[in-house]
Give the backbone structure.
Amino acid sequence: MAQILAYNASEPARVTDSVAIPVPLTPVGIGIAEFNLVIPSVPNFVELKAMVGIRGDVNIGSLLFRIFRDGQVIFYAQEGFESAGSEQFYLVPIQTVDPNVTPGAHAYTLSVENLTADSAATVIGPIVFSGLAVSA
């Protein structure tokens, strides 16, 4: 039976409109949440979950969300956005698994960047990012 080995979370913004982080144009990304997780020396996997509130500000575009472990990309996903009317607000869910993480302390970071020139978006919250290490 699987056992919980470690857990940590980052919640830089609890509600909508609690932050206003302009999303930079690629290849520049901005870290919006991070935490450390200490993994014991047993077979494991780390379940990573995030929820990010964004607002489309100018035109139609696409954002790239990345998850890093110790500075290396381990996951990325794309989300489109618009800037008109009720279509400009988004709550983006992100979920992945990081299998067989080596023992020791690891830094996980969630970042975002804008893939579309002539568009703009802002992270407005909430921002929640968590990791749960479980024995394999």
